[in-house]
Amino acid sequence: MKSDELYGLLRRRGFLWPTAEIYGGAQGLYDYGPLGTALKRRIEEAWTAWFVGRSEDYYRIEAADLLPEAVVRASGHLENFTDPEVACASCHSVFRADTVLEKVRPEGVDGLAPAQIAELVAERHVTCPKCGRATLGVPVPFNMMFGVDFGVTGHERAYLRPETAQSSYLAFPRMWEVGRKALPLGVAIVGRAYRNEIAPRQVLFRMRAFTQAELQIFFDPERFDVPIDAVGDEVLPVLRVPRREKGEESPEWVPVRELRSAELPDFYLFHLVHSYRFFRDALAIPKERIRLFEKSSTERAFYNRIQFDIEVHLESLGGYKELGAVHYRGDYDLSRHAAGSGQDLSVVTLDGRRIVPHVLELTFGVDRNLWAQADVHLGREEERTVWKLPPALAPVQVGVFPLLKKEHGAYARALARELQAAGIVAEYDDAGGIGKRYARMDEAGTPFCLTVDGTTLDPASAEAGTVTLRHRDSKAQERVPRAELAARIASATRLALAPV
Ligand code: GAP
Q1: Domain 386-492, CATH 3.40.50.800 — does that match?
Q2: What is the mean pLDDT of residues 155-164?
Q3: Maximal CA-CA distance, the chain
Q4: Cα gap 112→94, rounded to integer Å
Q5: How many angstroms does the Cα of residue 234 sit away from the middle of ligand 1?
Q6: Segments making up each domain of the chain, as ranges
Q7: At what angle do helices 165-178 and 332-341 cross, to 10 degrees?
Q8: How far, in Å, is the centroid of ligand 1 from the Cα of 324?
Q9: Which residues contact 116 (CB under 8 A, 6 or more apart)?
Q10: Which residues of 204-213 are buried (b: 16+ CB within 10 A; e: fewer)?
């Protein structure tokens, strides 16, 4: 579906809408309604189970959204967290440089100096996207953090965190103390990050307040054992720098064992596979739509030594889009915070070496992935609109309907309550014809519907006490005894976690 159509549907069904909608909205800010909130939670829970729940040394924490200035100074964000901004001298509109150059340089402007961007603008006769005049200026760096006054005197400055990662680095010494004093140690945060994007657009794709799920794995660079042989045969869709430089855009399928090298150490590859499998298996993104996009040394974020973005081809946004990444950040973060805070952030390993741990970061954008679920799994099929969400992500797991409200309503309500008590999200609905009710559930991604009818309540029937279970994807129907329903639905909506 096109972006507008998808957004229209999500808005109409109350999944999400612009913040302050009655005031005309606020660029780059969105609120989630009940279905959107539930779906987002499920994605966050799936991410947590996949990445954090599988090691006894990985923990999820919560931390403040505001960071004192000293933190973002030490982290390098005050100096480096910038995007080039281009202003038009005629109409005074301001744009991100990559937006202005979208048509002539679709791969973006990462790694280009302001002078090179200005040269491209002049050479290719790029005009202002708003007024059409050739009066675009030289790009200037624009810091994307939101700074706020902190305290009552207004002398102190704080910043809304630009990435959740920083809070995990600040937590490291405390987590070392309360944990097992051994590496690797994982610290995860699922929470808001804030960026004053120059050109917020594409709904959930470039927001000013968004949710990240990020796991920081602190490890000993001389010793990070991973079961690489267990994933050696996995074939990954990679687009590496040398092929990109030849103008290739499609990934090639390469077995992990052939990617092993000094450049791509085992610990990195193992976690790249684990992340790729999350997209393919837990989020059910067809593997043909995934691309692992290697960033070159000039394109990588300023803190990274190795970076592959996990991209998914999104029809609604017209191409591959970054939804997550695997970042090898070296000792950048703890060294910078040790220098900034004056605290010793080194630790002693079990074999007695004093080291500053390195960081492997697995980062994931929750909002972008919610959008991707709609892009990939929501569509029209014959006469219906159906969202074939992976059952483990469905906001509502089962719709419960009486065929006739008067006759079967009380039984259906009691059944819905019974399922809710068993931990299943069941929604009772008796409004309109049965076809309309199915249609509403199909659009919301509900994998199962149950209908209570005359047979259910007829003591003389051989099928008394059974209800019709309807499967969303196939529309197939079967009669199932009431006593079996909770177990059937619980097992079909559980996230399948393959062993690591
Ligand atoms: N801690 C590393 C980090 O923040 P990033 O590539 O800047 O790296 C990580 O962001 C993820 O956060 C991205 O892959 C994307 O999914 C999400 N993200 C980044 N900026 C975003 C924005 N403006 N709106 C929505 N999601 C965003």
Answers
A1: yes
A2: 96
A3: 84
A4: 19
A5: 26
A6: 3-79+145-232+304-376, 386-492
A7: 80
A8: 7
A9: none
A10: bbbbbbbbbb
Give the tens place of pLDDT for each residue, 44-58.
999 999 999 989 999
Over residues 228-254, the mean pLDDT reads: 97
Angle at 154 between CA 151 and CA 159, to 5 degrees: 70
Residue located via tokens 């008394």: 464
Contacts of 180 (CB under 8 A, 6+ apart): 57
C-alpha 5 – ligand 1 centre gap (Å): 24
What architecture is the 3-79+145-232+304-376 domain classified under in CATH? 2-Layer Sandwich (3.30)
The alpha carbon dihedral of 246, 122, 322, 327 has a sign of positive
Mutation test of ligand 1: which of 19, 368, 369, 375 has the most ligand atoms closer than 8 Å to its C-beta? 368
Host H or E run for residue 437: helix 434-444
The CB density around residue 424, as the number of other CB atoms within 10 Å, is 19
CA–CA separation, 467 and 478 (whole Å): 8
Dihedral Cα 46, 48, 52, 54, nearest 10 deg:
-30
Ligand 1 mean position to 195 CA, how many Å?
9
Distance CA 179, CA 172 (A): 10
**211 - beta bridge partners?**
192
Residue with tokens 């906001």: 395
CA distance 344 to 87: 44
Nearest to 303 by CA among 210, 173, 166: 166
416-451 pLDDT, tens digit per residue, is: 999 999 999 999 999 999 999 999 999 999 999 999
- CA 64, CA 272: separation in Å to the nearest integer? 29
Cα separations (Å) of 70 from 158, 166, 193? 9, 12, 18
Cβ–ligand 1 distance for 329 under 6 Å, the answer: no
> Measured from the CA of 214, which atom of ligand 1 is nearest?
1
Q: What's the confidence (pLDDT) of residue 154? A: 78
Q: In whole angstroms, what is the distance from residue 342 CA to residue 337 CA?
A: 8
Q: How many CB atoms lie within 10 A of CB 286?
A: 12
Q: Which two tokens mark 390? A: 């992976």
